[in-house]
Design brief:
The longest helix has 44 residues, at 302-345. Strands 3-4-2-5 form a 4-stranded antiparallel β-sheet. It has 2 domains: 2-42 and 127-337, Multidrug efflux transporter AcrB transmembrane domain (Multidrug efflux transporter AcrB transmembrane fold, Up-down Bundle), CATH 1.20.1640; 49-123, Alpha-Beta Plaits. It has helices at residues 2-14, 16-36, 44-47, 60-67, 98-109, 125-154, 158-177, 184-205, 207-229, 236-261, 267-296, 302-345; strands at 41-42, 49-55, 75-80, 86-93, 118-123, 233-234. Helices cover 72% and strands 9% of the residues.
Length: 350
């Protein structure tokens, strides 16, 4: 009861904490973009280059350390069998450093790279650029379709939901066929026109839907800021991790929203009940991902990046679900009750 009384007085003030984190994250990402030209660091799997796959059990960490003495832009991954025995190392390097990397690998490993003990794969920078754009389009589309599904569940008005679906289809066709292939300025204008219109509909017609979308957006931006802060270079696996994070971000938010909007108990009790279930879900995911990261970390595989990003995102999801989304929903439900009471007082229907 004491906590409920304190929460009733301070739940709006609590919103300041995630708001400050989000503002700082956006500022950091914007500054990072102004300095690098990208919203995150890309490894050679997204920039193009040469990949050397070598059959060796040479320690991945030691190899990465020695290569780091002469090269700045490269990545090293280990490939192991089911029992954890290392079978290969995969070294990726930009095209201009291809020959130097081959010579350095031979010096470190102590044998010549031949067709019997290694393979070489070259990816043109133009092909990687196209692949990168396709992945980014996939992330954006996943987010907007997630938002559409949430609006269809919690929004009102059948006709409006229909036009939201049509708008998302047009948005998907635009992103898939024209985004970044036409004039950049025109492309940006159309992107913000389509995206802004959809977001305006969500905000105006369904606050609970907007709260879920906003929390998912905050999870992604905050995680991206931390990824840039620790100097991680994202690979294709990293972008896939952000796609997974969208799903992780909305599950507890939807559960909380459903519990409050269809509640049969008082608001604080509904939040407390949802919290018990939601915190169990998230902590279970964190423990599972952390355990998997510990198991595969020494192999320096692509799974490391996926698990690290998911751990960071799940941590922020705790903040954005139970500080941001819960506070917005409590604000919304209590305001709705007051509006209904006013209508009843002036002769309207309850």
């Amino acid at each position: 009861m004491k906590f409920g009384s304190w929460y009733d007085k301070n739940y709006k003030k609590i919103l300041v904490i995630p708001a400050i984190l989000l503002i700082l994250s956006i500022i950091f990402v914007v500054v990072f973009y102004s300095q690098t030209g990208f919203i995150f660091n890309k490894d050679v799997s997204l920039t193009g280059g040469t990949s050397y796959s070598v059959q060796t059990d040479y320690n991945v960490g030691e190899l990465e350390s020695k290569l780091g003495e002469d090269f700045n832009d490269f990545s090293v991954q280990g490939i192991s069998d089911g029992s954890g025995n290392q079978l290969q190392v995969v070294v990726m390097v930009p095209e201009e450093n291809s020959d130097d990397m081959k010579n350095e690998l031979e010096n470190i490993l102590g044998f010549k790279l031949t067709l019997k003990n290694s393979s070489v794969q070259f990816t043109a920078s133009s092909l990687s650029d196209v692949f990168f754009k396709q992945l980014m389009v996939a992330v954006i589309l996943a987010f907007f379709w997630m938002a559409a599904v949430v609006f269809i569940i919690f929004g009102t008005g059948g006709k409006l939901k229909f036009w939201v679906i049509i708008g998302n289809l047009i948005f998907a066709i635009f992103l898939g066929n024209f985004f970044l292939t036409i004039n950049p300025i025109l492309s940006s204008i159309l992107f913000f026109l389509f995206g802004g219109s959809l977001i305006y509909i969500y905000v105006k017609n369904s606050v609970p839907s907007f709260a879920v979308m906003f929390s998912a957006f905050a999870d992604i931006v905050m995680t991206l800021a931390v990824v840039n802060l620790i100097g991680m270079k994202l690979s294709t696996a990293g972008i896939v991790a952000f796609l997974m994070l969208i799903g992780y971000s909305v599950d507890t938010d939807i559960m909380l929203t459903t519990r409050l909007l269809r509640k049969k108990e008082e608001t604080n009790e509904a939040i407390a009940g949802a919290f018990k279930t939601g915190i169990t879900m998230t902590l279970t995911s964190i423990i599972a991902v952390a355990t998997a990261l510990i198991v595969v970390f020494s192999f320096a595989s692509v799974l490391n990046q996926i698990f690290i990003i998911l751990l960071i995102g799940l941590g922020f999801d705790l903040i954005n679900t139970w500080l941001t989304n819960a506070s917005i929903l409590k604000w919304y439900t209590e305001r709705s009750v007051k509006d209904v009471s006013k209508k009843s007082f002036f002769g309207g229907k309850k």
